[in-house]
Amino acid sequence: MQRMGMVIGLNAEKVAEYKELHANVWPQILAMISACNITNYSIFLKEPENLLFGYWEYTGTDFDADAAKMAADPETRRWWDVCMPCQKPLDTRKDGEWWSMMEEVFHHD
Questions:
Q1: To the nearest whole percent, how much of the chain has pLDDT over 70?
Q2: Would you place residue 2 in the very low, low, confident or very high pLDDT band (cuts 50, 70, 90)?
Q3: How many distinct structural domains can be found in the chain?
Q4: For residues 29, 21, 39 and 36, what is the CA-based torsion angle, rounded to 10 degrees?
Q5: Which domain holds residue 60?
Q6: What are phi and psi of 55, to 5 degrees?
Q7: Which residues contact 66 (CB under 8 A, 6 or more apart)?
Q8: Is the pTM of this model over 0.70?
Q9: Can the peptide bond before residue 48 be classed as cis, meaning omega within 30 degrees of 0?
Q10: Annotated active-site positions, please?
Q11: Is 109 part of a structural domain of the chain?
């Protein structure tokens, strides 16, 4: 199992919409997350800075393949089309990133 974290900004005028979307995530999206070996997935919001922190545990053996599977799914792409206008990527993100992946520097069970 691999713990993974990521961060992105959230447009201030979209906070309520984003919260509502995630209070009612489409069942197909939840099924795809599970099908891609992602468990224990949470998104946290820090206001008033409007930073989103995402965390999940990856239980598969090929994250790149599972990420490609998710990205190829039409319902996932439709979900992203709804969510992405709410988000504000960090200026410091790496090429090809939307959410900025984070390095784990501490863990305690």
A1: 100
A2: very high
A3: 1
A4: 30
A5: 2-102
A6: -135, 140
A7: 36, 37, 38, 58, 60
A8: yes
A9: yes
A10: 22
A11: no
